[in-house]
Amino acid sequence: MNAAKPPAQFAADAWFKASASAAQNECVEVNTSAPAVVGVRDSKAPGGPVLTFEPAAFTAAVGAVASGVL
Predict the structure, then answer these.
(1) Rounded CA gap, 54 and 37, in Å?
(2) In Å, how far are 1, 13, 24, 55 from 33, measured between CA atoms?
(3) DSSP 1-58
(4) CA torsion angle for 44, 45, 46, 49 (degrees, to 10)?
(5) CA 66, CA 68: separation in Å to the nearest integer?
(6) Cα torsion angle, 28, 9, 50, 52, sign
(7) Is the whole-model pTM more than 0.70?
(8) What is the spatial distance between Cα 52 and Cα 58, in angstroms, rounded to a whole number?
């Protein structure tokens, strides 16, 4: 039986969003301060849930969005 991983601990001051979205209200924020995990959250609800991704999966998803696949 595999033990559940503990939740990632992200540094509170390490959340950032793309500079191109600074004037937008519909943004996500990203945090890479936890080891081997990328956190993504809604910038309008910073106390809400955080989605976590392995770095390679996050990079692939961003690439797919940038190329128009997603």
Answers:
(1) 5
(2) 29, 9, 24, 12
(3) -PPPPPPP---GGG-B--GGGTT-SS-EEEE--STT-EEEEETT-TTS--EEE-HHHH
(4) -140
(5) 6
(6) positive
(7) yes
(8) 9
b (16+ CB within 10 A) / e for 15-32: beeeeeeeeeeeeebbbb
Q: What count of residues does the chain have?
A: 70
| Residue 70 near residue 61 (C-beta atoms within 8 A) | yes
pLDDT tens string for the chain (70 positions)? 455 566 679 999 999 987 666 666 678 899 999 999 999 999 888 889 999 999 999 999 999 988 999 8
DSSP state of 68: T
Give the per-residue pLDDT at 3.
52
How many Å apart are CA 17 and CA 40, to the nearest integer? 10
